[in-house]
């Protein structure tokens, strides 16, 4: 047998083990009936008193119901009684009450999940703050995710966005950091540092963890939480600015 034929035999795809395909659990939104990835939806659970409560970390015991709708859609479903009927079916007729401020509670829980995640990444050392440090790391291609406070100056955002594009070798493209729906004071408290206006995640896994929680938060309040930045000025920001942080 010729040498080339031996190589062909060894690399034949039919002899290779089948590639493993990662399974992504799905859930169905009780309002829209659309399916989505479990991690992209929001779980609702029943508190001991029968009130419906957000369970954004999906840890509460017992039966749960899932929603993938944004805040405006949820509020319409509440007003029309659609949510009550959907929850009654999901919880098999168990006695329940829907708090009047359920949309606020969900928004605050999503905000807290994202801010808590940023705090964990800061303690793990996968997060940078400070414009100079971020700019240097970005130009070296060491930044996986770039975030800006929603009260950051546009000029500062543009400079860091450009540094990030240079490091990614994507100059001339519409790549820019995400404007997170929280002010610098909120971000400072979340990561335990002073005057946090910009945040850079340096590890891809850390960036993925933050992106997951941020995408749900932005999606619920009606912002784009995907690769494009969350534009500032939505209804979700005011709740964070009124107090010291989300409850």
Automatic annotation (TrEMBL):
Alphabetized Pfam families for the sequence: YlxR
Query: What InterPro entries does the entry give?
Result: Ribosomal_eL30-like_sf (IPR029064), YlxR (IPR037465), YlxR-like_sf (IPR035931), YlxR_dom (IPR007393)
Q: Which residues form the YlxR domain?
A: 27-94
- In this chain, the stretch annotated as Disordered covers 228-247
What is the protein name given in its UniProt record?
YlxR domain-containing protein
Q: From which organism does this entry originate?
A: Sphingomonas jatrophae
């Amino acid at each position: 047998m010729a040498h080339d034929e031996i190589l062909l035999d060894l690399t034949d795809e039919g002899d290779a083990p089948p590639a493993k395909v990662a399974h992504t659990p799905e859930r169905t939104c009780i309002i829209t009936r659309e399916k989505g990835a479990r991690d992209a939806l929001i779980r609702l659970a029943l508190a001991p008193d029968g009130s419906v409560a957000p369970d954004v970390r999906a840890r509460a015991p017992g039966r749960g119901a899932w929603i993938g709708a944004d805040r405006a859609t949820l509020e319409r479903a509440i007003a029309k009684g659609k949510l009550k009927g959907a929850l009654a079916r999901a919880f098999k007729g168990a006695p329940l009450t829907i708090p009047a401020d359920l949309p606020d509670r969900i928004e605050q829980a999503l905000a807290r999940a994202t801010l808590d995640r940023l705090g964990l990444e800061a303690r793990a050392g996968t997060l940078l703050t400070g414009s100079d440090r971020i700019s240097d790391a970005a130009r070296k291609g060491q930044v996986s995710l770039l975030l800006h406070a929603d009260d950051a100056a546009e000029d500062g955002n543009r400079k860091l966005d450009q540094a990030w594009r240079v490091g990614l070798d994507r100059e001339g493209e519409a790549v820019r950091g995400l404007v997170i729906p929280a002010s610098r004071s909120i971000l400072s408290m979340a990561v335990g540092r002073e005057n946090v206006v910009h945040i850079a995640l340096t590890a891809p896994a850390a960036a993925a963890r933050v992106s997951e929680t941020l995408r749900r938060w932005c999606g619920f309040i009606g912002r784009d939480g995907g690769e494009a930045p969350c534009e500032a000025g939505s209804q979700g920001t005011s709740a964070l600015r009124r107090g010291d942080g989300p409850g």
